[in-house]
Fold this sequence. Notes:
Layout (H helix, E strand, L loop, with lengths): L6 E2 L9 H6 L12 H15 L6 H4 L1 E7 L2 H12 L5 E6 L2 H12 L3 E6 L8 H11 L3 E5 L1 E2 L4 E2 L3 H10 L3 E5 L11 H4 L3 E5 L10 E7 H7 L11 H8 L10 H18 L1 H20 L5 E2 L10 E5 L6 H13 L2 E2 L5 H9 L5 E5 L6 H15 L6
Parallel strand pairs: 1-13, 3-4, 3-5, 5-8, 8-9
Antiparallel strand pairs: 2-10, 6-7, 9-10, 11-12, 12-14
Helix pairs in contact: 2-11, 4-5, 6-7, 11-12, 12-15
The chain binds pyridoxal-5'-phosphate.
The site of pyridoxal-5'-phosphate has 15 residues, from α4 and α5.
Amino acid sequence: MEFNDLALFITGPTYIRPEVRLAAALPEFGHRDTEAATRFDPIFHGLRALAGLGDDPAADGYHLALVPGSGSNALETLIRSLVADDETVLNISVGAFGDLFHNIAVFNGKKHVQHKVTPGQAMDLEVVEALLQTERPAVVTMTHNETSTGVFHENIAAFCALVRRYGALPLVDGVSIFGGVAVDLPAMGCAGYATATQKSLALPAGVGICFVSQEAVEKSRQVKNKGYVTDIVRHLERAAKHQTLSTPSTSLANQMAVQLDYILRVEGMQARFARHLRLRDQAHAFAAGLAGFELFAPEGCRSPSATAVQCPSSMTAADLKALKEAMRARGFLFDTGYMKMNTALEAAGAPPVFRIGHMGDITEAMLSAFLEALAEVLAPFVRR
Ligand SMILES: *Cc1c(COP(=O)(O)O)cnc(C)c1O
């Protein structure tokens, strides 16, 4: 069979380096066998290091569980494990992925309150505080990096401290940013932090990654109706031995071990984070050169892993779909933006937003080549 090998500049899944592609062909293994440790010990070590943690959960008070599935499975595990039946969960949504976290609570029958922020804006801690006072939630969810709008929240520590001041547990969705920026869970104070393999970690999808604090684990022991594969306590019993609760993809485990070793020992975490900031700046410089186009996220809240660009009023979502095909012909997969949001923007008389995914292992040279091609296909729409 022959498949088209496009360079992915979407916001996940992302480009996978040749070395990581090949790692999928490394030997399969038994997930309860001693051989499993050769894969999972470096995986646990690497993921914990990226979260600002050492190897011993008892020492820094944070536990890690790998949940077969994807980011959504990790989010559902946090909701089912940490929101009791008689409690309310408050969801702060700044876009489509904030809505996903909310919907997971709704579909699991949790008592819920949602606060929706206008797409393209960031959360406002004063508004969050007012909601904490009126709604008295037991758990508050929010999104570290809103992939649909390119909004990145730098102020997670302040958010978590505020939520804790009102006696609630802060849960953070870090799916599209973990591995692309420095995360220090003890300093940030999250009770739960969820991410996945196929975004800034530059791996195939297949594992949801859940970090939980010691106090969250203790709370979860009291929560009922957690399900079988969504109970963080059950996951952690296996995770204590660096195993998964159910059978993992052994190909993905091989790839994760290889990739985390690369991130820590070849590229280096700090170099990786610095590269993401340079990619962001490169995308911003490109957008600044397009007369009539605007960055969608506000200054100070612009994502290091994905840039959202609002088109001039002359452009439609249909134009973006045509651009995608023009980019495919040039070997790139272009991201036409979050379609539901673009439909809503157009219904309100506003132009659509496209995204440039620059997360994971994308290099500056790769992004340059992509932006050069994008400049060509966008040229007819740029104001002169
Ligand atoms: C992609 C994404 C998700 C959904 O994750 P899946 O791995 O597709 O289940 C959740 N939150 C954010 C912020 C995302 O970018």
